[in-house]
Each structure stands twice: as structure tokens, then as C-alpha cells.
Amino acid sequence: MLTGSWRGDGAPRILIVDDDPNLLVLLAEQLRSDGFEIQTARDGLEALRRLDGGWPDLLIVDMMMARMDGLTLAREIKARADLPIIVLSAIETADSKADLLEEFAEDYVTKPYHYPELRARVLRVLRRIGDKVPRKELIVGPDLRLELHRRTAMVRGQRVQLTPTESRLLYALAANLGATVSTETLLDRGWGDTDDADPSYVWVTMRRLRQKIEPDPDNPVHLVTVRGMGYRLVPSTADAG
């Protein structure tokens, strides 16, 4: 169970977006008291202006706002960078939650929120993501550049779109470039909230990633399996072909 305040290296930056001024003040005070660096925005347009000045590590976004609703805002955010979003909303229907979680949200908290639960979910998302979103492209080889903040890869000059799960696995691998990341760690990064997740989820996703970024998916040179342990993202200085 995740309890207490943040104990990571440096204070994670959280942007709260909600048109309820009382909620903004209260939630900002609560999160600051737990060691987070907080910015607030009263609507989607103000939130986008905040993003122009720098990216947070996490956003908490209301869905029902008069000036640019949360869904429109979330799509605008994801077009810029794959930043993690927690939805904070009075909408309680299961279908709405499922749709939002499938499309862009890392988690969903229903209003009125219980702060210890919200804090635990914030910590859980941050620890599942694990690594700061890379701010620049990562050059893995002459024919492979990763733009994880945009959830894309440049493969032999062609832009390839990555899914949120693929990006999360690559975040973990890129943060440990050249080192082995265990299958268990990757499983937690990609499916931390899934009760019945098993290693086959990682295997399938890695296979899909190889189809997207490797010159020869059957003989990978960048996404390398370390048998019995996990995977490595291996940089190269020459074409694999």
C-alpha cells in the first residue's frame, strides 16, 4: 500500500485543472503538504498556456469545464506529449470511466474525492510510470530515434506511432539504456492496475514493438531479450542491416 508523502528524488510537478476555485485551493494545499510542486489552471485554455511554460510530471483534470472541457483538453495534451493524466470527475458511469481510461487516462477518481485515496493513486501512477518523461529525442541508432514525449519513433526516416503501453515500456528501457530491465518491472510499468496481468502481456507488446522499430523483428538488435531476466534497449552506432 502506498502511504505518506512523496519520497522520490525531487518534487514531482502536478498541474491541477478544474473550474471549481474552492477545489483548486484545497487540493493544491493538500498535495503541497505532501511534498508535490503544484500549479493550477481554471480551465483547459489556461492549462495549455501553463504547458507552454514547461511540462508537469502528472495532470489531474476535471471533465466538465465551461471553457474547453476535460476531454478536449486531454486530447490536446496527448497531441503534444504523452503526459500521465488522472481524471477527477463527478461522472460516475462505468462506460464513461472505461472509455476515458482506454483513450488517455492513467486513473479515474470520482468526486467528491477522498484525499488519502487520491494521494495513493497519484503516488501509484508516478511510481508505475517510474521515469521522468524524456524531454528530447533519444538516438538509439542511425535508423532509430525515439520521441517518447510525443509517443512516436522515427524509423528509417518514417514516423511510427506508439501506443501508451508501448511508450511506458520504452520509458523504462530508455531510463536504463543498455541495462537489463526485468519482466516484472515492465509488467508493473505497463499493467500495474490489472489484477490478472501476466508476463505474456510483456512478450506480446515487445513483439509488437519489434515489428514497429526493428530492421528485422526476428533478429532484434535494439530490443534484446535477456533470457530468464527481462529486456534491454541497446544503442548502436551502425546500421543493423
Tell me what you see in this structure.
It is a single chain. Helix 2 (44-52) runs parallel beside helix 3 (70-80) and helix 6 (164-175) crosses helix 7. Mean pLDDT is 83; it is low at 1-9. The protein has eight helices and twelve strands. It has helices at 21-33, 44-52, 70-80, 94-103, 115-129, 164-175, 183-191, 199-213; strands spanning 13-17, 37-41, 58-61, 85-89, 107-110, 138-141, 144-147, 152-155, 158-161, 181-182, 223-226, 230-233. The strands form three sheets. The protein has a five-stranded parallel beta sheet with strand order 2-1-3-4-5, sandwiched between helices. A four-stranded antiparallel beta sheet has the order 6-7-8-9, with no helix packed on it. The protein has a three-stranded antiparallel beta sheet with strand order 10-12-11. 39% of the residues lie in helices and 20% in strands.
SSE order, one letter for each helix or strand = EHEHEHEHEHEEEEHEHHEE
CATH superfamily of the largest domain: Response regulator
Spatial strand sequence of the major β-sheet: 2-1-3-4-5
Fraction in beta strands: 15-25%
Q: Report the CATH C-level class of the largest domain.
A: Alpha Beta
Our measurement of the CA-to-CA distance between the termini, rounded to an integer number of angstroms, reads 47 Å
- Count of helices? 8
Silhouette:
elongated
Tell me about the largest β-sheet.
5 strands, parallel
Q: What does the radius of gyration come to?
A: 19 Å
How does the helix and strand content classify structurally? alpha/beta
CATH topology of the largest domain: Rossmann fold
**Which residues sit in consecutive blocks of at least 5 with pLDDT less than 50?**
1-9
Number of DSSP strand runs = 12
Under the CATH scheme, the architecture of the largest domain is: 3-Layer(aba) Sandwich
> Helix fraction?
25-40%
The whole-number mean of residue pLDDT values reads 83
